[in-house]
Amino acid sequence: MVMGMGMVEELWQAGEMPLRDGLYRPDDTGLALHVDGPGAYHPDAGQPIPFRVGEPFDVAQAIQEQGVVEADTYFETPLPDGSGWMFGGGGGMGNIGYFARLDANGSLRWVAVMFHSNPFVSVRYEGTSAVLTNDWRNTLQLDLRSQPLG
C-alpha cells in the first residue's frame, strides 16, 4: 500500500473499484447506494434511474467480502465550472455501472458503484446537476452541490 493512500484511492489508481453498491471516498468511508435499474427490454427502459443514498458501511469489510472489479471508463468530462471532472463507465459482466468525481487537480473525491445500473456512457450538465445516461438510455440526475455529492 502506498503511504498515505487509502484502499479506495489505491483501487481507483489501479483502474478498479469495490464490487458492492456504494458511494466510496478516498478516506475509505462508504455510504450504501440503492439503485434499481430496469433491463434493456423492460418497459421502463429510457426512464430515470432511482438513486437513494443509505447508511454508512465498513469499506474494508465490503472489499474483503465482495472483492473488486475492473473499472472500464467510457467518458471523462470536465465540469463546466472548472472545479473538476466526471468519469463514468462500467465493469464486470455488463450490469455494473459507475461514475466518479475528481477535483481539478485529478484527486478522487468519490466514486459511486452500482451493481444493477449498467454502464454509464455519457454525461451532460444542467446548471449544477450532472445528468448521466447508461447504455439503456436510462438517466440519472445528480445535484453536484447536494450532500454527500458536494
Note the main sheet: 7 strands, antiparallel
- Shape, please? globular
Percent range for β-strand residues: over 45%
Low-confidence stretches: none
Instruction: Compute the number of strand runs.
Output: 12
* N- to C-terminal distance: 28 Å
Helix and strand sequence = HEEEEHEEEEEEEE
Report strand order across the widest sheet.
Answer: 4-3-2-9-8-7-6
Look at the structure and give the mean pLDDT.
Answer: 91
Detailed description of the structure:
- Helices cover 10% and strands 47% of the residues.
- It is mainly beta and 150 residues long.
- The protein has a 7-stranded antiparallel β-sheet with strand order 4-3-2-9-8-7-6. It has a 3-stranded antiparallel β-sheet with strand order 10-11-12, with no helix packed on it.
- It starts with 6 loop residues before the first helix and ends in a 7-residue tail after the last strand.
Q: How is the topology of this model organized?
A:
Elements: H1 7-13, E1 16-18, E2 22-24, E3 29-34, E4 52-58, H2 59-66, E5 68-70, E6 72-78, E7 84-91, E8 96-103, E9 108-114, E10 120-126, E11 129-134, E12 139-143
Antiparallel strand pairs: 1-5, 2-3, 2-9, 3-4, 6-7, 7-8, 8-9, 10-11, 11-12
In short:
10% of the residues lie in helices and 47% in strands. The chain has 2 helices and 12 strands.
Pick out its properties.
150 residues; mainly beta; seven-stranded antiparallel sheet; three-stranded antiparallel sheet; 2 helices; 12 strands; 10% helix; globular
